[in-house]
TrEMBL record:
This is 2'-5' RNA ligase superfamily protein. It comes from Nocardia amikacinitolerans. The keyword Ligase applies. One of its GO terms (molecular function) is ligase activity. Keywords: Ligase. It holds the Pfam family 2_5_RNA_ligase2. It comes from the Bacteria. InterPro entries: Cyclic_Pdiesterase (IPR009097).
Amino acid sequence: MNSAGPERRDPRRGPLGYYWFITFEHASDLHSLTEELRQAIDTTYFAPVSTNGLHLTLDRIAYINECTPEQLDSIAAAARRACKNQPPFSMMFEQLGNLCGAIGFKVSPAERVRGLRDELRSATISVLPEAPIKGSSSDPHVTVAYPVGEDLSAMAAATADRMSTMVRRVDVTVSEAVMVLLERRRHGYWWKEITRIPLGK
């Protein structure tokens, strides 16, 4: 066994498909907190997420090459109609935890996040009845560092616990959802924005 670091993962790379996200480009308080946390993360074991890479995954729309641009347009139109009934809401960040080996924030109120997800999911299914929606039952979360090796859940939990004293409550207003084309790149993600869906408009 190599004691110098973890056994490196070889995650699948390249385009993954189309997804619904919440993104945080303008959340300056969240950016500041995340930058502070980055300084306490051991990059031998974890790859910190840049501030412009922070996101919350709401749902999967379709795998790559399994829907057309016209279908995506129709899904977006259905989502705009549905989200007129979803007013903007405040999302709270105040608890770090182990996310299956990653480190991230568990956000609240979970029921508002799930309500938005359900509206977007209904819009997706109205156009793609067999859409490969995500089956995860995990709590809504925003990852701040991904594991670079295998079997790092215990270390992620210990790191999150150690950094908990650095965490102060941050509130972020969520006023839109984003349709993206998602791509895996090494120990993180990159995405291309397709369209934005305003809430309550």
